[in-house]
Amino acid sequence: MPLDRRIVDEFVGVLGAADVLSDPIRTRTYECDGLTGYRVVPELVLLPRTAEAVAGCVKVCARHGVPFVARGAGTGLSGGALPVADGVVIGLNRLNRVLEVDVENRRAVLEPGVTNLEITAAASPFGLYYAPDPSSQQVCTIGGNVAENSGGAHCLKYGFTTNHVLSLEVVLPDGSLVTLGGDSAEQQGPDLRGVFLGSEGTLGITTKITVRLLRTPETMRTLLADFPSVAAGGQVVSDIVSAGIVPAAVEMMDALAIEAAEGATGAGYSLDTPAALVVELDGTAEECDDQFEQVKAICDKHGCTRLHIAGSPEERANIWRGRKAAFAAVGRISPDYIVQDGVVPRTRLSEVLDKIAEMADESGIRVANVFHAGDGNLHPLVLYSEANGEAEQAETLSSRIAELCVEMGGSLSGEHGIGTDKACSMPRMFGEEDLEAFHRVRAAFDPDDICNPGKLFPTPRLCGERPGKYRPHPLEEHGAIERL
Amino acid sequence: MPQQGPSAFDAIRPPERELLDDCVHCGFCLPTCPTYQLWGEEMDSPRGRILLMDLAQKGDIGLDGPFTEHMDNCLGCMACVTACPSGVQYDKLLESVRPQIERNVTRTKSDSLFREAIFALFPYKRRLRAAALPGALYQKLATVPAVRRLAAKLPGRLAAMESLLPPVTLREAFATLPVHTAAIGKRRARVALLSGCVQDVFFHRVNEATVRVLSAEGCDVLVPREQQCCGALEVHAGREESALGRARRTIARFETLDVDAIVTNVAGCGSSMKEYGHLLADDPEWAARAEAFSARVRDVSEVLAELYSRDDDGGPRAPRTPVQGRVAYHDACHLGHAQGVREQPRAVLRTIPEIELVDIAEAALCCGSAGIYNMIMPDAAAELGERKAGKIRDAKPDVVVTANPGCLLQIRKYLGEGAHGPVPLLHPVQLLDASIRGVEVPRS
After folding, report:
1. pLDDT of A80-127, one tens digit each?
2. How far apart are CA A79 and CA B83, in angstroms?
3. Which residues does residue B395 pair with via DSSP β-bridges, in sequence order?
4. Residue B339 and residue A133: Cα distance in Å, rounded?
5. pLDDT value at position A290?
6. Which residue of A23, A74, A96 is in closest CB contact with B66?
7. Positive or negative, the Cα torsion across B424, B427, B429, B430?
8. How is residue B142 annotated by DSSP?
9. What is the mean pLDDT of chain B?
């Protein structure tokens, strides 16, 4: 149902006509984020340029009960920015200024549309950087990182987005502009910043972020090691951690993922190995050298077939480019794919991977594996072809993998969020009481359920029907209910 | 989404389904897309445009209106092709979509008038020479009907066109290159040079420098007479019929020559000539000839870099004199993104003693020239031009070099004067030529 003309006029009053997209062909290009299996065309796309304009838009939404969905670069992999039918998308990508780099206090103040990598670019002339590094860091925005509590390869040592955000200016679902947190990490009272961070756009819209910056490490050492099996690689990871070494990053890729990444970047990965590990150490030169020798010995012990040490910053950058392009590069070996994001205890890594391989064989769908091995965050990539009618099978397999992670004592999502994709799996991980508590928190911020509704929590509408393409509900088929 | 109805594209080379399906919507193309950087709107980003192409192919939307608008907005810089981890061939997609628009969408009167005028002028050396005469554009071109109509109806746009044409001496505009120049010393290769249209009239000195450098480095250089435009501007604007005619004529002119490479010093020409094989793939008479031709096309920096890295008799041969100062190399999109030639020009420049080669920030972002783009989309082009000029100034160069006349003109327009007068803007080969000849670095 199209929005009332008067409501549209109110948005135009706030933003001006040029920043309100209503043409159905143009709004169509906002129908999905990085998870393309779900698509909903919004009524309007609003493109504000200031925090005040964002607040103005949300006030109009609140006044008329119009659901809204915040969107940054639209790279999310859990459908967190999937529009709501009859609702509006509020794009934050034009709020893209680095407002301040406070070198002395090692802080930066950012608008939400600044990309993750731009923070480091602004800080690096002062020997500082922003630590969390999602693989899409050159395009994903800090606003989206806050919404999803994004991680990245280096979160093993440095922690997730929440460990690096000091304060947030947010627009609450009633349109009020408030600040959560403060300049220091220690704040009085309940940690509302902590509640908001990672709430996947369901509690409000971030309009300004103050982050901590770290000093660029003195030394970085990166090695690329091939192994005869994923299990051997997994053993190496366990041994490294048991030896008391905290690497900056430990990443593993299997043969399919390597094929895709190497095809995209030509970064120098071996194409004939079943598994490869990227291990990076950072710190003082002495510490790195010492630990590096230990890591090499552990690799040898587990039958490493090729060990390559990045000899220059360019080579290191290449290795990372390959690893970070892996998801998108999978497009080279499969027309469609779903990225999963489960977490398992590191000790059960090989067990889970064997199980995933089994499940993949059973369903006849290929699964590639890329993962943050150090913290047990798996990214199985379920490869399928929608044109060949494999979408449903792939979705089922993907959900089963996520649920397997929970059964193994892990979690549904490490860093990509629950969004639309995994909302229906939430009851596997949380009991009714937990979910109820979540609902109460959400309702405290958004009593009218207009702020990114349908995400994060299972809803009858979403989960009663199978997610994905429309299929009539059994009750619909019997004529008992009607779809509006 | 399944097919909704008949495709909005006609049957002549519509965008291929497999190529559309390659896009996984990851968004890695957004940071280097000039229009997304300017406007921050999804439908003016590569993945947004591919989504629109997909909808049109599935018959869900038509080609007129927003579809054409957003395809027209694309500069065709191909930065997205470089950025894409999935290997999406946006270049091929765009090149199949633009002719569809030209055939099937009626443009506004003023838009089509202007486009006609551009294509009545640029591919013709003789008309460009007329335009080069001092203050001549209006009078001397009055003989070209398309230009006359434009001048009568839209004098402002004609002025926009004129402001991009550089001052040139009559001697230069009418000079011609020798048909044959022998290699100095033992011959290492034999090449034929495309002298170009804009290049030969407004940048004849670049062609002269190219011939001198190639010869000094051991190449026999042929410059066949009666060359015509290679069709690059038309290929990139979707004027397919006319462009293919030019491609066939260029192939016919060069294919019989006994040379190791067909050389160009213009990024745009090189990129379209390397595409001939693909463009003529459906033409039984020309497919094989076009492919053989394309396989021999090289940018001048590729030829030199290859000579320098040869095992047998390799390396720079001509003695160089030092060139002191900061030299900023600007990657022309049609060289870097479209041809993947980034290292070779830098490697060639590094053979000049004492040169300090500096990079320009946001190197992947287009300067806004983009073929005819700065004439038909002057506002967006101006913003991009200003942005690029700012990044170039930040690099504090003493000289700026780039391998495309469009970029040279665009950057010249926006860079303005430095502390010591205008910063020389050159083709890399001019700098190498000055070093080899031991003469002062030219001012233009």
Report:
1. 999 999 999 999 999 999 999 999 999 999 999 999 999 999 999 999
2. 23
3. none
4. 31
5. 92
6. A23
7. negative
8. G
9. 92
Give the pair of three-digit tokens for residue A207.
């309009």
Give me the phi and psi of A381, to 5 degrees please: -105, 115
Contact by Cβ (8 Å): B305, B347: yes
Q: Cβ neighbours of residue A474 under 8 Å, at least 6 residues apart?
A: none
Sign of CA dihedral B31, B34, B36, B39: positive
CA distance A449 to A338: 28
CA pseudo-torsion sign A197, A198, A203, A206: positive
Q: Does residue A391 sit at the B interface (CB-CB below 8 Å)?
A: no
Q: Name the DSSP class of A34.
A: S
pLDDT of residue A469: 46
pLDDT band at residue A479 using 50, 70 and 90 as cut-offs: low
CB A340 within 8 Å of CB A379? yes
List, for residues B313-337, the tens digit of each pLDDT value. 999 999 999 999 999 999 999 999 9
For tokens 């030896």, what's the residue? A243
Closest residue in A to B38 (Cα–Cα): A94
- Please tell me the distance from the alpha carbon of residue A140 to that of residue B198, in angstroms, as a whole number: 41
Query: Strand, coil or helix: what is B78?
Result: coil
Distance between CA atoms of residues B343 and B359, nearest Å = 12
State how far Cα B298 lies from the chain centre. 14
pLDDT digit string, tens, across residues A160-212: 999 999 999 999 999 999 999 998 878 888 899 999 999 999 999 999 999 99
Q: Using 50, 70 and 90 to split pLDDT, how confident is the model at A311?
A: confident
Residues from chain A contacting residue B22 (CB–CB below 8 Å): 331-332, 335
Give me the residue label for tokens 């070779």: B344
Distance CA B331, CA B78 (A): 12
CA distance B53 to B56: 5
Dist. CA B276–CA B235, nearest whole Å: 10
Tokens 């040279």 label which residue?
Answer: B408
3-state helix, strand, coil in chain B (%, to 5): 55, 10, 40
A2-36 per-position pLDDT tens digit = 899 999 999 999 999 999 999 999 999 999 999 99
Report the C-alpha gap between B156 and B11 in whole angstroms: 38
Residue B145 pLDDT > 90, yes or no?
Answer: no
Average pLDDT over residues B49-56: 98
Could you tell me the CA-to-CA distances from A303 to A226, A273, A309, A348, B236 in Å, in that order? 9, 12, 17, 20, 53
pLDDT of residue B137: 58
Region of residue A481 (left: phi > 0; alpha: psi -120 to 50; beta: else) = beta
Instruction: Please write down the HEC assignment for all residues of A74-87.
Output: CCCCCCCCCCCCCC
What chain A holds in terms of domains, given with CATH numbers, is: 98-215 (3.30.465.10), 219-328 (3.30.70.2190)
For residue A43, report the phi and psi dihedrals to the nearest 5 degrees: -70, -45
Q: Do the chains contact at A332 and B40, CB–CB below 8 Å?
A: no
Residue with tokens 């552990």: A298
Measure in Å the smallest separation between the Cα of A112 and chain B Cα atoms: 14
Bridge partners (DSSP) of residue A377 are A343, A372
- And the tokens for B187? 């011959």
Q: Is-contact B223 B179, C-beta < 8 A?
A: yes
Check if the beta carbon of residue B83 is closer than 8 Å to that of residue B54. Answer: no
| Chain A residue numbers touching B27 (CB-CB < 8 A) | 34, 73-75, 136, 139-140
Burial B269-300 (b: 16+ CB within 10 A, else e): bbbbbbbbbbbbeeeeebbebbeebbebbbbb
Pair of tokens at residue B392: 């170039």
On chain B, the residues whose CB falls within 8 A of the CB of A31 are: 51
Search chain B and give the residue with CA nearest A385.
B21
B130 pLDDT band, cuts 50/70/90, is: confident
